[in-house]
Write a structure and sequence with these properties.
Keywords: Membrane, Transmembrane, Transmembrane helix. This protein is mostly helical and about 350 residues long. The chain has 13 helices and no strands. The relative contact order is 0.12.
Length: about 350
């Protein structure tokens, strides 16, 4: 054997080792790739919107909103004729007998929205705006302001509108502030935000659906208060819908009287509060009763607001019993608001006991 042949015989031939499907190397490469894909997808999904300014959802902003809404309730409750003159002007003359009770009931809706804002102020102070209860309360304020804005806009667009120019714009400013603060707080808590510049509307809508999917969920409970709040929520919402879509019929059924477009406008505004802040408050208290947290401060605030709202309704409705302005639906409403006052006043005073 020659020296060349001997050298060739000693050469080691290297062959590529095939990677089997179940080998650690393949699994590691695939795992790394899938993690990178997930990270990329998660990053893109999270870029739904820019965070809102912290000043929008600060405790001070909610405190200011609560003060404004509470201040608006005072003239409606104590000087309803002056409130009618400011909002309706000449259309309020001569003052109808329904102006006084309707403005006072309207004040209870403003008080309910004010107490919701106070509860959210506490949530902003404790960094708890991302809880399902607080996000639901924020959406309740948004719906409250949005429905009232639509009512005002449609009324102002009609020939011979009953709204005065200063009354329209003063109310519109308060409603706009309500939407800005409440929607800003919801956006910051849910990472939905007010700006859609990064991802466009479709991912933002998907994120909004994800954030609101569990807001109606609640633990089923056999507690008496939980059942009471559930029944009250259904009653408030049904009443609000009927006030909004059948104002003349329900006014006749409650007060045995229907007079003037301004009375219809006020009755619909009352319905807007019932389907939004009042119903949301009652449902949130139902959740508090389910998990035994009615003794916590936010739920005590909500109970106090519902108790005051119920008390105002009772002050308006009780004197009408047996009179000419007592419609066939009045006793049923007295039963609902009487139950609401008893349950909420007990919750505000004793909590979950």
């Amino acid at each position: 054997m020659t020296s060349v042949q001997h050298a060739n015989a000693n050469l080691v031939t290297f062959r590529p080792i095939p990677l089997q499907r179940g080998s650690l190397t393949v699994r590691a490469l695939r795992t790394k790739g899938s993690q990178e894909d997930k990270t990329s997808k998660r990053t893109n999904r999270d870029r739904v919107a820019e965070p809102v300014d912290s000043a929008v959802s600060s405790p001070g902003a909610y405190g200011i909103l609560a003060g404004i809404l509470g201040a608006l309730a005072l003239p409606a409750a104590f000087v309803p004729h002056s409130a009618a003159d400011f909002l309706f002007g000449a259309a309020a003359q001569p003052h109808d007998l329904l102006h006084e009770p309707l403005f006072r009931i309207l004040s209870s809706g403003l008080l309910s929205a004010s107490f919701v804002s106070m509860a959210l102020r506490l949530g902003a102070r404790t960094g708890d705006l991302d809880s399902s209860v607080n996000k639901r309360l924020e959406l309740g304020l948004v719906v409250f302001a949005t429905i009232n804005t639509l009512l005002q806009t449609t009324s102002a667009a009609q020939p011979g509108s009953v709204l005065t120019f200063p009354g329209f714009w003063a109310t519109a400013a308060v409603l706009g502030l309500t939407v800005t603060i409440a929607w800003g707080g919801f956006g910051k808590a849910s990472e939905y935000g007010l700006s859609l510049k990064r991802a466009g509307p479709l991912p933002a809508v998907k994120k909004f659906q994800d954030d609101t999917a569990d807001l109606g969920g609640s633990v089923q409970s056999g507690r008496i208060k939980s059942i009471a709040y559930t029944v009250l929520t259904a009653g408030f919402f049904a009443a609000g819908i009927s006030y909004l879509y059948a104002p003349e019929t329900t006014l006749q059924a409650v007060f045995n009287d229907v007079k003037g477009d301004e009375c219809v406008f006020l009755w619909r505004a009352i319905g807007a509060a019932l389907v939004s802040v009042v119903s949301v408050t009652s449902y949130s208290l139902k959740e508090g009763a389910d998990d035994g947290s009615l003794g916590d401060r936010p739920f005590k605030i909500l109970n106090a607001g519902l108790a005051l709202t119920s008390f105002v309704h009772l002050l308006v409705f009780v004197p009408l019993l047996g009179g000419d302005h007592a419609g066939p639906l009045l006793p049923a409403l007295l039963g609902v608001w009487g139950t609401s006052f008893a349950v909420s006043a007990s919750g505000a005073y004793r909590g979950s006991d």
